[in-house]
Amino acid sequence: MKYIEPQILPSLGHAEVRIIARTPEAARAVAEALRGCFAGTAERSFPGLGGDTRLHLTVDTAVSAGPAGSPLAAGRSPAVAGAHSDEI
């Protein structure tokens, strides 16, 4: 059985975002796009197991930081939905 570490929930109105990318530049580009839609904190990056980059950031979903016409603000659903194999 796989052990899943308990998570502390972010405060109300906030979301924790985990980005996993092959390069730090790709992870930062995704974080920058999120910061264009939501107010957020500085990201924290960690080296991954296979040489990848893991970047975590907290966004405030109650405060829009970007234009109202952004895809996230417009409520468009992502192309792929569902949990990853290491998530419930």
Structure notes:
The chain is α+β, with helices and mostly antiparallel strands and 88 residues long. It is 14% helix and 31% strand. It is built from 1 helix and 4 strands; from the N terminus they run βαβββ. Strands 1, 2, 3 and 4 form a 4-stranded antiparallel β-sheet that branches. It is flat and about 35 Å long. The model is unreliable at 76-81 (pLDDT under 50).
Nutshell version of this structure?
The protein has one helix spanning 24-35, and strands spanning 14-21, 38-40, 44-47, 53-64. The protein is of the alpha+beta class and 88 residues long.
Key terms for this structure?
about 90 residues; alpha+beta; four-stranded antiparallel beta sheet
Task: Spell out the blueprint of helices and strands.
Elements: E1 14-21, H1 24-35, E2 38-40, E3 44-47, E4 53-64
Antiparallel strand pairs: 1-4, 2-4, 3-4
